Amino acid sequence: MESGRCERNNEIMIQEKYSLTTQQIQHFETFGFLIRRTVFSPEEVNKVKQEFDRRLESIREEAGPDAERLFHNWPNRNPETPYIASLLEDPRIYVPSEQLVGEDSVPVHSNANSYRDSTPWHPDTRDQHLLMIKNVMYLQPTSCEHGALRVIPGSHRNPLHDELLRIGLDCSSGKESSFLKKSGLRGEDIPCFIFSSNPGDIITFNGLIWHAAFGGFNDRRTCTFNFFCNPRSSEEKESMRKHVETTQENIKLLGTVGPQFHPWWLDNPEGSTRRARWINWLEEWGFVEAYNN
User: Which terminal residue of the chain, N or C, has fewer Cβ atoms less than 10 Å from its own Cβ?
Assistant: First the structure.
């Protein structure tokens, strides 16, 4: 009983220390994104970089001659990257995420990425019933001319979200944007917020928001930690079921290497109650089976 009381008191202190302010929550809800600077120290970022280097090297060795032409994308919940995996349960990640999408939200995706070029305008989801947020940390400095993430403020909401789709800004299919082609504009000309960042900074954005990155460079590196809202309405539950059904298609599209939920992570050797809740939810919704097969 005493240990349970201590655990609750400790969680209260954690919440008080790492919670977002009312103004930060209002900014996220209004504009669809939130910037937090120097969330992780240089020493912590170096740990991330070291694990990233080792995992990327092993993936390149496995890919052989195809390594240089591939976009590399792999899950973080892996025994080769234990420190990065632990960040999902770091209060600097989970506390703000739970504030924005609910205390019972769950991290479905956590990936590391090595991009080759720029990323054209697109939303991560078009389904207004699927609430997902992405926490992103770049592992190299970015700027307007050098691979910085760009977001269109307010584009997570309608009518703006659907209007950008209607005019043909979306390039996620790999085809040229019909809007940019007809207008004579470049992707860089679209009005937006530019996330010039240093390693350790975090941008959190709604999966519905339109985003892009220009001035891309080879091996542009990020780590992402994505939390999904626990669906409640019938529409939200149907959207979640559809998302699970398209899992294998998304894995092939991205070329993700390795299981999203490694048995090492699923074993939960530390006995984390938060992770146990996540695992139970992921298994019930079919994510573990869909992502690990």
Answer: N
